[in-house]
Amino acid sequence: MIEITNLVKQYKELSVIKDVSFTIEKGEIFGIVGRSGVGKSTLLRCINALEPVNSGDILIDGVSIRSLDDDGVRNLRKKVSMIFQNFNLLNQKSALENVTLPMEIWGYDKKVLRARAEELLDLVGLKDKYNSKPRSLSGGEKQRVAIARALALDPEILLCDEATSALDPNTTKEILALLKKINRELGLTLVVVTHQMEVVKDICQRVAVMEGGKVSALGKVEDLFLNPAKSLKKLIGEDELEILPRGINIRIFFTKEYSNQTIITNMSKDLSVDFSIVWGKLENFSGNVLGSLVINVNPEDKEKIEQYLIGRGLNVEVISHEY
Known about the structure:
It contains eleven helices and 14 strands. The protein is an alpha/beta fold. A hairpin with a 2-residue loop joins β12 and β13.
């Protein structure tokens, strides 16, 4: 478990992280999302003690990183591994040699180095690339080598700093599928920093939205996207909800239990009401199709439509525009 409490990080007079607190559960895939410059990557670097904190604390399985001496920090980085946007591979070394490097630094028996590196390259789908150097690999293959290297010391936590930002959409999907496989099969906790909304929806279970060095929203991914706070609306492009037609608009939230049901059609028949569909959005969250719909209704029908929808277990929000 990772517990972040009242964390503050400053560079001289510049406050980058301002009183941030949240918990990441063991074995979950947790996202930290926001625009560039909001403190996401700095927060990630604080978690593995690459950056010292000014106040507050981070506990990894109950141990404060602020209490660690040099040996403690070194052991922490064995437990908490990291992958980056630009891969950080050594160009003069082969894929196999890049993966064995952390084990060599830690003094692992040379007899096990190659076997362990081959095992990891097989895991990430590079069985035929043992001797290939980075210049001959695609971006996706380089990131797979970086992931294999990050797993070399059997970490418990994998930090991913914009790990798919340099990749095309298809390769991004492949790398995310690999990260989900690693989470599922190895039980690693994944902390994913990104500004890509598709990454969050595809892989993360919970997410913290950062804005101006603070956490502006925190919760399950589907909950935040279905009913986003203002800070998240800016990121996912729901500003158009602010220009809905005048009158009574009702937003209906469809969770996975309701996304395949014909509730709107049935409501029209059962209540004999007229309405206009003025906005809608469907999203794929880790294989589940979720979304929301906005209907514009006659004022006299508002109450019975609300009661009908709530009575069937749906969440609704009334949005009135009188301009």
